[in-house]
Design a protein that fits this description.
CATH topology of the largest domain: Rossmann fold
Helix content: 25-40%
Distance between the termini: 67 Å
Number of strands: 13
Structural class: alpha/beta
CATH class of the largest domain: Alpha Beta
Bound molecules: ligand F0G
CATH architecture of the largest domain: 3-Layer(aba) Sandwich
Radius of gyration: 21 Å
Shape: globular
Order of helices and strands: EEEEHEHEHEHEHEHHEHEHHEHHEHH
Largest sheet: 6 strands, mixed
Strand content: 15-25%
Number of helices: 14
Strand order of the largest sheet: 4-5-13-10-11-12
Length: 393
Amino acid sequence: MHLKCVECGKEYPMDEVRYTCDCGGLLEAVIDLDKVEDVFDGRDITLWKYQSFIPVKKRISLKEGGTPLYRVRKIEHVAVMRELYVKNEGANPTGSFKDRGMTVAISKALELGMKKVICASTGNTAASMAAYASAAGMESYVIIPEGKIALGKLTQAMIYGAKILPIKGNFDDALNLVMKASSEMGIYLINSINPFRLEGQKTIAFEIYDALGYVPDNIVLPVGNAGNISAIWKGFRELRDAGFIEHLPRMIGIQAQGAAPLASAWKEKRDYSPQPSPETVATAIRIGNPVNWKKAWRAVKESGGFLETVSDEEILMAQKLLATKEGIFVEPASAASLAGLLKLREQGEISGGESTVLITTGHGLKDPEIVVRIIKIPEAIEATEEMIFEVLR
Ligand code: F0G
């Protein structure tokens, strides 16, 4: 197993600290697919079940993965679809899919003898890194855009013991600073430019195949820094290259209208360019220059998929629909996947006969403030039987 540049093909060993190629290209782990095991029996689905696909030994785990895959029949009805599922990543230990990447990246950090880890974050990466770093006995540092992190995520990162450095800038500024700090100061970089993060996140593909016993037609998910869509695509490709499956799904990425550098380039059929001042209610994906954009672009293109945008209103409506119809409470960024699906059904770009899995990436309780903005908390009434009966009648 080794790392390989997705641009020039140059190879590097896995036992050195390296995030990108000398040419600047993104790196990808190449797995020995002739040595992987057939564990796809639909039983005991957990991330480390797929150990033979993961280029690191399990060292630090909080029992991530094995998240529920729900058949959402009421929303199938709303969207007039034959087969729709939600893979709910909010059920991970710190409440987001980041835990999958973190168990592998922090295990790798230990393997490399690193003592400190750092990330830029819109919140979830910070919370997850902080938890796994604590479990590993490492110091963790987080650079975040001031005032733009959901309260749940910030409190998590703090209680797990991370050092938080808010900056007067956005996520993209934070990531640039973190990349500099990690290379100058020898702190291990945990953002998804680190190829080992994606090695954990690709297990979402394995779990979907393991649970269903086949590969769905479409995977729909929110796109921010564009790591997850790249990772899941890699997972499906490896399943095919190892001979387990033949059919690959279409990868469909959804971005918020106000933070859509990739989706707008795709829709306008032009080259990618960063978006200077991203803005959306879905703070998790408030990103103007996704570091993995090239991998994501390839995933969408190779899979015959596409990218779409949704408005903040559509996101909040989808969040409410998922909670009230199916009992699944997700954060706004995650609801972008359902908002996108509904839009694509309306436009006819996904047909009713296709099977689709929506990835909901983070738990709703991460961002209670957003819900409080759209719901009305009832005022207290007198504590009398008459009043209660009156209201319940
Ligand atoms: N959904 C949630 C809930 C997220 O937290 C993120 C990314 C995404 C979707 C997008 O995933 O970046 O792989 O395309 N959050 C990062 C963070 C950026 O810092 O927590 P992506």
